[in-house]
Request: fold
Amino acid sequence: MMKLLPDYHLHSSFSGDCETELLSIIDKAKSLGMESLCLTDHNDLDFPETPDGVRFDLDIDTYLKTLTELRDSLSGIDLRIGVEQGVMPETIDILNTYSSEHPGLDFIICSTHTLKGYDPYYPQVFEAYPEEDVYRMYYEDILNTVTNFRDYNVYGHIDYIFRYGPTKGENFSVIKYYDLFKAIFTKIIENGKGIELNTGSLYRELTYIHPRLDILRVYKELGGEIITVGSDSHDTEHIGYGFDKARDLLFSEGFKYYTEFKNMNPEFKVLN
Reply:
């Protein structure tokens, strides 16, 4: 029996939009046969106010202390400590020294969760602009981020914007935006960074894993090798969700390795 890939995108009660307790996450991962996992709670500085008042500022000192103590008490599973950094053009500079200011992190996901000051989970941005323009502006923001932001390991759910668009990206063509994707992935690869396969789309009623296959192929064709797998779970139900499909996808597209991280450094693991 193949071991389950480690889940490198998980949220706990340290995230403003999650109430799942740490020990329940650990217990579920162990029950699934995971030998390792990485907590990646949200830190989104200056996130726009949500209608329900959710905040995404991570109490990093308490987080590191709690997870370090938990890791030291565990047996049978290797806990890594990560953060999902929600990066906006306005917060790049202040976040660029985050890992050096907070030693003890193993891993940072860089994600784009906003556009033009809006969370695309809510309808305002798609009401204000045509869908195709929203996608181009979103990827222009990502290009700006990968050009100017270095304190991360992988870019998270790089087609996150599709989750909330009117057509869920159904009419999206990578060819139309190829100039942007080529520039984005070239910069990611040159800087020694990677991307994630995010299976959270599968339980959000999308038909594909983030990123879509046509986008993933651009990354691979340009020489991208660093790739993690994450469920983006905010509960215990979806930990490791769709990881069999993620493994099959990596194999079919010619990836020989998946990646884990320790002390912000990649560890390449053979897919088998």
Observations:
- Residues 157 and 210 are 5 Å apart (CA to CA).
- The chain has a mean pLDDT of 96.
